[in-house]
């Protein structure tokens, strides 16, 4: 790490590294009886406490040491949100090794690539992922063993794998006579790969320091706002950017934790919310869509659910309003990315905005919000010059902070920073009060006559038309304006709408020159493995599209 | 600072020092229009914004550099809570120098001692402290200049001081073209002396790292719980352990700040609370007593005040109940000390306790609470062995954490740690849920037949008797039990109570063997400069007291 000059007079405070093991030790010591409740892959509900979790984490850490895992070694997990995954979070990182969380929804080839790239020595996995493990095992040259997160009774009678281990047997064979080692806080703690639309996945390699600072910052009232009085259900998966840090911040504050396991449908979530009296949850909009549909269809209400943080993609305003006004649930928009641990911003009101009328408040809450203290951001033009904070000017969003990466693992992608700032690949506006709003991805924004057009805004308008099921907007070449918007639309089954009607639908909703020049109706849009629309594929598909020239 | 071993694999996150200047820069950039309102020593109300504060802080930093202040140099302040004091907080520490905050209520000899011990180069002071400055100036050999925190119009026409400077002139003469320097986060940032009852004051020398970690931790929901929607009035003085960190944590979250200046009487506070719609305040119990008396006498209510943190000494249960039930104000007990930056614990409920009946909740809220994540604590016997957490066993309270001192400035007092832990000098219990309760000072606790008796508990009972104005309990020698309690009482004017009546008053309120062996009635108790009862003086006074031997 770069050194900064020391003062001739240094402070005389205790020197203690910020370590992940401190969190679980604290949770055990001060909130030892607080519960961790998990819906398991086995199908049942499992309950225990932070004291139990700390004990088993130490047992696992000791088992890993006996298996030859040393500081800096990588251990992978392919698992849902549950208590055994949490034990791995603390045992692996706490012992100085590096937890490599893997998204099971990726293609097996991608998973094998990541395991090899990370040089994982062991892979811990939930039992329903055995087929994935069997598919990748022959291609994973560094892995000494695959640990199935279950008891002996759930282990397969026979397996293609000759190095299959049983998690509960490892725990049972290991004592908890284990002291967390103390080491430099900049040591690597966990690893998460981003699945970009092009090229190989690249790894973000977090440190104990970045993780602890992120935990403190994200727990603050204008972040995720987690307290000891909360019961927290992280829907956002632990294989995806550490579930937005909740596996750290929730034990840190001593809140009750509820894990949904693989059951993320509306009914299963609702039952767990009510049964465990969940007060706070975090997830992507599609999850809440499923939950709200179930609740509406069955005429139900929430008896404890008070607050949700929504990220991953923007929460549709109508969903935000339903959550806020119909169910009285506070909705906090958050934004971040794998390279940011992930939290960058959260959208809460300050004294002055809290006094505004409801419409004005809602308009602010639809933005991505303020940075959490620690992160700094700016918007710049293609020439790198900083752009004004007027809420209108679009620019490439750059960030920096102690929980933002400085480079990718093994320096894939080379020098990624621009003058010390990380380019997020997002295009955003920032208003005079410091609220940021994502308007597009840098590579998707349409550059028309030197001005930028947000494809997200054009798509949102199209999708509010009753006949439109899905819409995606791309720029296509234009002789005069360089690029102009082409809207590609999938109609709802049985619904009809003409090109002219849809173009007219934009009237008064947007600056005239933003209106799409043309509309193409298609049967389906190209979708990637993680559910995102592949705009690069669309651009390829429509690269010869001729716009009607007025 | 001690080094910890590095992992063979270090994280790849941005390396950024935790610096105090980051806070004011963040407040300016993201909450620039949020207000700072100050009741000034001049008598009027002053309003400006974080952007203004950041600009003037940079002007002051530049002025200090021009005056020859370098990294590590000490600059003192003797000032009330106000915007100019806040500017000094950021300008002095932000530039790498060390802000030495001084309590103006100390004796001039003590102040002069501290200025000389700290080798302060400049002293910034509020204009009403000019007499103090004139008294100490001849004895302060290191001071190059005394800066009066006011405009030219308030400077004295003539002064005994030949190095008296005008603050506003310094600011006006200096541009804000100043970049905050980047340096090692363990560099010293500020200095605060403890006024022990014996010996010279000793300095706690904070670092940027300790200050920022304390800010993050204290802002969390179970700490001071400060958000951008709060309007915060710190009654706790900025000359006393950095006003519990509020001058840092409030700008950090972008809340509106309200400074009371020297006017801490009930009427002045109430007017400011209502006028500025204060939501949160922090202070010692005596301040709230004054405020509540004023409010009750005038049949007033609070229209915005929602939450208060009370520390310094325990909040009388009756006051806590009045605040909670009569005015609907949430009361959070907090505990800490100068050596702890100061926050160690805050008392909030967790999921399980929040479900308890009101009486049980009140009983918990009267404790000092849970440690804020970062701090660890334990209770030990005189032999150093750790004692059980059962809510009954008393022990010496030891703490550690990244915002706890490792030694005093210039190593006064030598090696203060015990096996890496800081001995607080408090005696406490910790219950099975991790709630700590202070029961006495180590040097005051009465050791009777190997068991400990809390003088605070005996005093609280005595003071609930209608005829008792003040009571203090000390241990006096006893032939069989080593020590037994003697209660020393000041009766209310005109009230009467006999020794026997008072001893009987303890019946059923406490274990029989705790009952004071004797009671002495006096006209007054010996009180020190900071308002505390001097028990060492009492022990001297009563050292030959003969207890009635049954």
Number of DSSP helices of chain A? 17
CATH H-level superfamily of the largest domain in chain A: ANL, N-terminal domain
Largest sheet of chain A: 9 strands, mixed
Number of strands of chain A: 25
Q: Using the alpha-carbon principal axes, give the shape of chain A.
A: globular
- What average pLDDT do the residues of chain A reach? 94
Quaternary structure: homodimer
What's the CATH architecture name of the largest domain in chain A? 3-Layer(aba) Sandwich
Strand order of the largest sheet of chain A: 2-1-11-10-12-13-14-15-16
Query: From the helix content, strand content and strand pairing of chain A, which structural class follows?
Result: alpha/beta
Ends of chain A: how far apart? 58 Å
Main interface by residue count: A-B, 92 and 92 residues
Unreliable stretches covering 5 or more consecutive residues of chain A = none
What is the percentage of strand-forming residues of chain A? 15-25%
- Give the C-alpha Rg of chain A: 24 Å
Tell me, what is the CATH class of the largest domain in chain A?
Answer: Alpha Beta
Q: List the domain count of chain A as a whole number.
A: 2
Share of helical residues of chain A? 25-40%
Q: What do these coordinates show?
A:
By secondary structure, chain A is an alpha/beta fold. Helix content of chain A is 29%, strand content 23%. The first copy, chain A, folds into 2 domains: 21-430, ANL, N-terminal domain (Rossmann fold); 448-541, GMP Synthetase, Chain A, domain 3 (2-Layer Sandwich), CATH 3.30.300.30. Chain A contains 17 helices and 25 strands. In chain A, strand 13, helix 12 (317-326) and strand 14 (330-336) form a beta-alpha-beta unit. The radius of gyration of chain A is 24 Å and the shape is globular. In chain A, 53% of the residues are buried. The model of chain A has no long low-confidence stretch (mean pLDDT 94). Chains A and B meet through helix 1, strand 9, helix 7, helix 13 and strand 16 of A and helix 1, strand 9, helix 7, helix 13 and strand 16 of B.
